[in-house]
Design a protein that fits this description.
16 strands; globular; 3 domains; 16 helices; alpha/beta; Rossmann fold; single chain
């Protein structure tokens, strides 16, 4: 039975036991107002406040204010403590309140709402497609352990285990640590909110994973066609890496289309060699790389394209000629002022860029590519982005179309933003992990 067919049945089966705890309130406004607070009361309220759950946030804030008001005279006069200790106490209260609500950029209220909902159809289809090779044969836990034990450390595989709602990780190369810890923290967050099934899986910490093993591997990006691996939201996606204009919230902040410049903006590195299989960039293969071509278009057409390199790597640092494409960095806030953006693959999908560009209300130009991420299957050309050839040979033509069809371009830009707001927030991305793990675990054997 496919994921699409059995998801609702399985969700109902697990619903009764998946939530670790019900939201519970530990005191009421009336209790606090009526009570003469003793030292024991104060300490009890301070401890209990750290346990306040999530569905009564407005009431909690009111109680916090009442609590502060009723405690102030007691703390300053009755206990005769100084103002520094009083302020520190209030900071402890604030910390106790805000920590459960937001951790690593995650709004727990919003995440809980996402987890209680059935996933959108595109997510069901994507998970179903990724898991379909496993429907008949299953996924052997013993084989997972054997494959991991035999792996070369430079394959950068990490083994994740969830047991008794606790997450543990194993890896063989120290370079895996930073990214592995990010996923560990966010999966642990899931476990703190819901009852997760006992499971085990392998994840690639590489930017992309192109090996074919006897068991499926979770990967942040893959190259089509891929048969036996599983796409996952990347480490930027699950830590709100798209929030590039802090302290403004890019999900809520929007620059009107008519206030943007009629030109395309791009900044990035020369790192692109591995997607073409050339190894390092050389003087004789420079124009095989679309990032170089983009910068050359910018040099010839500065009135409509502003593109340049801010970092040289993979051999490009040894080619003085490429310095003509060097440009200064431009802030993300300033990049939002441009109508047109482009997603040019690097060593794989440019997920650090795509994570925020779809929120910008700017028109996305996306070269054709076999490199894919977990949400690419939903994106439709001329509905969410403008497709261009991989060698950018039609980029100028498509830019002219956009300028001549400004209203249609604005609609496409808004479609992309609305998709991102509804499907690519950090809460959506962690919820995707939840639905994937629930479905994946159904196919574990041994």
């Amino acid at each position: 039975m496919s994921f699409v067919e059995n998801y609702e049945q399985d969700a109902n089966r697990l619903k009764s036991k998946r939530f670790c705890r019900e939201p519970s309130y530990f005191f009421s406004c009336d209790d606090i107002v009526a009570r003469k607070m003793s030292k024991r009361d104060w300490l009890s309220q301070l401890a209990n406040l750290s346990e306040v759950m999530y569905k009564q946030v407005d009431k909690t804030i009111l109680c916090l204010l009442v609590l502060a008001k009723n405690c102030s005279k007691f703390l300053l006069a009755r206990l005769k403590i100084n103002s520094f200790i009083f302020c520190f106490s209030l900071l402890v209260i604030a910390g106790a309140f805000f920590t459960p609500i937001s951790l690593l950029g995650v709004n727990r209220l919003h995440l809980l709402e996402k987890l209680e909902q059935s996933p959108p159809k595109w997510i069901r289809n994507q998970i179903d497609n990724d898991l379909s090779p496993s429907y008949e044969r299953g996924i052997s836990v013993n084989e997972i352990n054997a494959v991991y034990a035999a792996q070369n450390p430079f394959n950068y595989l990490v083994k994740f285990t969830i047991a008794n709602n606790k997450v543990s990780i194993e890896y063989k190369h120290s370079d895996c640590q930073s990214r592995a810890e990010i996923f560990h923290k966010q999966l642990s967050l899931l476990c703190s909110l819901v009852k997760m099934p006992d499971t085990v899986f392998l994840m690639s910490i590489h930017d992309a994973f192109n090996l074919s093993l006897s068991i499926p591997v979770f990967a942040m990006a893959l190259k089509k066609p891929y048969d036996f691996n599983i796409l996952i939201p990347d480490f930027d996606a699950i830590t709100a890496g798209y929030q590039v204009i802090s302290p403004k919230n890019i999900v809520a902040f929007e620059i009107p289309w008519n206030n943007k410049k009629d030109s395309l903006i791009w900044r990035g590195s020369t790192a692109q060699a591995s997607i073409y299989g050339h190894g390092e960039i050389r003087l004789d293969n420079i124009y095989d790389f679309s990032r170089v071509l983009l910068c050359e278009y910018s040099r010839k057409h500065p009135e409509i394209i502003d593109a340049g390199f801010t970092f040289y790597a993979q051999g490009a640092e040894n080619i003085p000629f490429l310095q003509i494409y060097n440009k200064s960095k431009i802030s993300f806030s300033d990049q939002l002022l441009y109508k047109y953006h482009i997603l040019v693959d690097g060593n794989t999908c440019p997920y650090s860029a795509s994570g925020w560009k779809f929120f910008t209300n700017s028109l996305i130009f996306k070269p054709q590519s076999n490199n894919v991420q977990w949400y690419y299957s939903f994106l439709q050309p001329y509905e969410h982005y403008i497709p261009v050839e991989n060698d950018l040979s039609d980029l100028m033509e498509k830019l002219e179309w956009a300028k001549e069809h400004d209203y249609q371009a604005s609609i496409i830009a808004n479609n992309a933003r609305q998709f991102a707001i509804s499907n690519l927030t950090v809460e959506d991305n962690i919820a995707y992990w939840y639905h994937l793990i629930m479905a994946y675990t159904l196919h574990l054997v041994d």
